[in-house]
Amino acid sequence: MEELLKAPFIKEIARTCSNMYRLGWDERNAGNISLLLEDGVINEYLDAAKVIRVIDIKFDASPLLGKTFVVSGTGKYFKNVEYEPEVNLGILRISGDGSKADLLWGLSDGGGPTSELPAHLMSHIERLKVDPLNRVVTHCHATNLVAMTYVHSLDERTFTRTLWKMSIEAIVVFPDGVSVLPWMLCGTESIGRATAEKMRVSRLCVWAHHGIFGAGKTLDEAFGLIETVEKAATVYTTIMNSRFLSNISDEQLRILADTFNAPYRTDYLDPVIKAINV
User: How do residues 207-216 score in pLDDT, each as one tens digit?
Assistant: First the structure.
């Protein structure tokens, strides 16, 4: 068997965690991440029949029965993942009737998976319905995006339009827009279910005054989505009190999306008003 610490998915998730920490998105033990592994991949690195312990995941994850995930641990610092992956990450397989998870590797100090595990698994369930290739869900506290939720309307259409107009790449990178939840208590099944419902229509869900959830086919895609949203939010929070002398128009957004074949939310742009010939 191959050495697990050298597995590409362990190296990549460690790099991603380090980058998010260095960007200031995951202070202290903030943030969490989950990666759905391809079927059978884990057998190349360990004996999947050997279960270290069984973890109660406290909700019905039966649609994911038999699926294996790499997840960050509760109370763990993202900055430490690259140095001690076996302590700060765990490999879980959904088992039993879907309310349990077999720990196959990691969390070697006796710790548990992220407290947001229900939100992650519920989001994976919904994203897989939309995109069978979805593999990643990640949560962080992107600084300027959090700031934006204090000073901007939380209406999803308005919030998305502002972000799209702050960067010409935005509508191309996240044409499905961003969903927004009002403040809710974190670490609960209720915020998990609310997030998963939002994930049915977009890959990004903002938690007001808290952070953001992002999903993607790869770690790069999920990271890049949040990175692009955060750049747009940074521009907005930088110039929000200034007098705008120009702006990106809805027509320019349409041109951008059409040029790059981005399936954007047409209802998020104002309708085209055609001149009437007299």
Answer: 999 999 999 9
Q: Specify the fold of 116-267.
A: L-fuculose-1-phosphate Aldolase (3.40.225)
Catalytic residues: 116
- pLDDT tens column, 173-191: 999 999 999 999 888 888 9
For residue 122 the two structure tokens come to 């519920």
Alpha helices by DSSP H, 43-116: 85-88
- Report the DSSP pairing between strands 89-95 and 100-106: antiparallel
Q: How far apart are the first and last CA of the chain?
A: 78
**pTM of the model as a whole:** 0.91
Helix (H, G, I), strand (E, B) or coil at 263: coil
- Third-level CATH fold of 1-114: L-fuculose-1-phosphate Aldolase (3.40.225)
Q: Cα separation of 43 and 156, whole Å?
A: 42
| CB neighbourhood size of 187 (10 A) | 14
Would you state the structure tokens that stand for residue 30, as one six-digit string?
Answer: 């903030």
Pick from 162, 213, 207: nearest CA to 183: 207
Q: Do domains 1-114 and 116-267 have the same CATH topology?
A: yes
CA dist list (Å): 181 to 5, 23, 165, 205, 211: 37, 24, 21, 7, 10
Judge contact between 92 and 102, C-beta under 8 A.
Answer: yes
A 10 A CB-CB count for 150 gives 9
What is d(CA 167, CA 248) in angstroms, rounded to the nearest whole number? Answer: 9
Nearest Cα residue to 31 out of 236, 248, 229, 226: 226
